[in-house]
Sequence to fold (244 residues):
Amino acid sequence: MTMTRKDKSTDKTPRHVAIIMDGNGRWAQMRGRTRLIGHHAGAKRVKEIVRACPELGVECLTIFAFSTENWKRTQSEVAGLMKLFKRYIRHETQSLCEQNVQVRFIGDRVRLEPALVDLMDNLELLTSTNTGINLTVALNYGGRDEVARATRRLAHDVAAGKLDPREVTDETLPKYLDTCLLPDPDLVIRTSGEARISNFLLWQSAYAEYEFIDTLWPDFTPEEFRKVLNRFGARDRRFGAVPA
Ligand code: IPE
Ligand code: IPE
Ligand code: MG
Fold:
């Protein structure tokens, strides 16, 4: 039987978890291997973490796969990553369908190669009616770029007379973001010990809880994921109010 959304969710469970999967390069370096080997090891972990979500009560998982700044890396690393994304989608499509996962991509597709964009579109379409967990993959994603693109679309609507500038509020703007169909993340996890957000979900994470953990992404197991989620349950979220 396929697990559906909300099967295991409680108030103590973050509904939406977003992960900055960092540390693949260092993981490989420590083993004297190429950075790309680290990315492949990281991709394996993604499969395990996705599989663990229904059992852990996580309804939405968003993963940072490639940032708008990652183009600064060597041409061979970027090319290797793009190849890995295509391979991952091809290999995982059937399994994601069997797991009832609904997949969406966020980020700017314009700079991505057409063969990859086709695979992304196809995976979104094939999984669009799935009712299990919601997996969002941030690919060529940058929070500032997303807000800029959203503002551009909003400005077009204003210019076309479809939107009154007086209606632009913190409730209308997010409707133009790539994440318009998603709730805000409750918990943002970053692996590899870096305590920064590197342009990830800037608008959406205004009230997220953060967990910066030392484990490198290829070493991040579902067991450790469970522990991080348990710590979330003990947190006191106030959203600016005074606790009752
Ligand atoms: C994260 O791992 C994966 C991507 C950014 C694509 P890194 O490649 O950043 O690994 P480190 O930070 O160099 O160890
Ligand atoms: C953030 O990691 C992007 C992804 C995990 C895809 P980076 O490794 O690119 O971030 P910085 O450069 O350390 O800030
Ligand atoms: Mg890194």
